[in-house]
Amino acid sequence: MNRMYLNCRELCIAALLGADLGAAHAADDKKPAEAKASLTVTTALPQSAKLPIRLAANGSIAAWQEASIGTETAGLRLSEVRAQVGDQVRAGQVLAVFASDAVQADVALAQAGLLEAEANAADAAGNAERARAVAGSGALSAQQVNQYLTAEQTSQARVQAARAALGVQQLRLRNTQLLAPDSGIIAARSATVGAVPGSGTELFRMIRQGRLEWRAELTSAELGRVKRGTPALVTAADGTQLRGQVRVVAPTVDPQTRFGLVYVDLRFSGAGSSPARAGMFAKGEFALGDSAALTLPQSAIVMRDGFSYLYRLGADSRVARIKVQTGRMAGDRIEITSELAPDTRVVTSGAGFLNDGDLVRVVDSAGPAKAPAPPAKTASTVR
């Protein structure tokens, strides 16, 4: 009897234990599954930085000053051309030579005329000296004495005229060599061997001192922001950047286009080594100082439908998409001009693959991946 009682008791205990285990398994099956992160990302906080203030402009590159070099003597044949387009010349260098045979003959004729005038002047001076010596003795009349003195003055004037004529011919002889008026670069040449150009005909055009300038076009409002001495960075057609400095701001504005010109002296190392050419279009920027800005890595900005967005990380490891406005760029960072709290944690890598409300896994640059926080468990009531 006792043995049967014990077996029944054991069977009851086993049944109760089985019921408790089944209830526990059923409770475990009702637990919610943990959400999985859609992407592993890195985050960063906005940083304050000093960014330069730039004023962009377009314009043309032109010569600082040009020199037109032409002949001053007409009727001479061009016998030699010594300079070509692109040559760098120095002041006083011979650019072209004219035939000088006729001019040398004129110089010799003028020298002979001067010698003749000087001889006549010496004879007239002797007669005038003797007339002065006997002027009071009555040997010569007052009229004769006056004639000798007048002849002396006339002969001296003829000497001066002969000297001037000789000087003119010597100047013509010097002009048979066409000299560079200043150092610079030959920009154009129309001189041809054998031609007989007229007086004043342009034979060469030169960029004085090889200096170029950028003539930037600015609006009326922008002109007031640029002053003499403002640094500028000009980008040539091949991408080369040239540094310059504002030389002068035009005092007038074109009434048709409403643009004013700013003249920027360009600097480059080495004569003729600049990639800039006169007449070339170029774009550039004026450096107007710097200002404080809130910046983020450029990888944090996502462009969608023509607007800029970023993803803010929440406390529950979910991201929220925020529309922002951007400004200046410096290296790999970009300015945020719209309102953004400095303690906002923003997704910096993988932002382009996210959607609003996605759960993410954050990777800290200083440590291992940080798993998203699991959902809170609801305490069950034991009855």
Note down, in words, how this protein is organized.
The chain is rod-shaped, with a radius of gyration of 48 Å. Helices cover 26% and strands 36% of the residues. It has four domains: 39-51 and 292-370, conserved putative lor/sdh protein from methanococcus maripaludis s2 fold, CATH 2.40.420; 56-64 and 208-290, Efflux pump adaptor protein, beta barrel domain (Elongation Factor Tu (Ef-tu), domain 3, Beta Barrel), CATH 2.40.30; 67-99 and 176-207, RNA polymerase II/Efflux pump adaptor protein, barrel-sandwich hybrid domain (OB fold (Dihydrolipoamide Acetyltransferase, E2P)), CATH 2.40.50.100; 100-174, Helix Hairpins (Orthogonal Bundle). The longest helix has 33 residues, at 101-133. With 383 residues, it is of the alpha+beta class. The strands form five sheets. The protein has a six-stranded antiparallel barrel with strand order 2-10-13-12-11-14. A hairpin with a 5-residue loop joins strand 16 (307-313) and strand 17 (319-324). The protein is built from four helices and 22 strands.
